[in-house]
Design a protein that fits this description.
This protein has one domain. 13% of the residues are buried. The protein has 3 helices and 2 strands; from the N terminus they run ββααα. The protein has a two-stranded antiparallel ribbon with strand order 1-2. By secondary structure, it is an alpha+beta fold.
Length: 91
């Protein structure tokens, strides 16, 4: 049996190494909020070639929720912020 852990973890806290976290700060409901992997999320949604803003918004929220906690009461505000970042991101 081996003592090696699966994956790449911090030797101090046991969590994900900081370089694996890619956080961008965006305004959500007027407050600066960190979104982890935002560029990857936007690129992935863009690859789907969705035309409808509502579908884009839902996919952004779904993917962002995989890496970030999105409070139920703030879901609409997060959706607004994500679609704004999606539209502002270079294509």
């Amino acid at each position: 049996m081996t003592n090696e852990k699966e994956g790449d973890y911090c030797t101090i806290c046991g969590g994900i190494k900081p370089e694996a976290i890619k956080i961008k700060t965006v305004l959500v409901d007027g407050r600066e909020t960190g979104i982890n992997h935002l560029e990857m999320i936007i690129d992935g949604v863009r690859e789907l070639h969705l035309k409808d803003d509502a579908a884009i918004r839902e996919e952004l929220l779904r993917r962002a929720g995989a890496f970030n906690y999105i409070p139920t009461k703030k879901r609409e505000a997060y959706g607004d912020a994500l679609i704004r970042e999606y539209k502002a991101a270079p294509k």
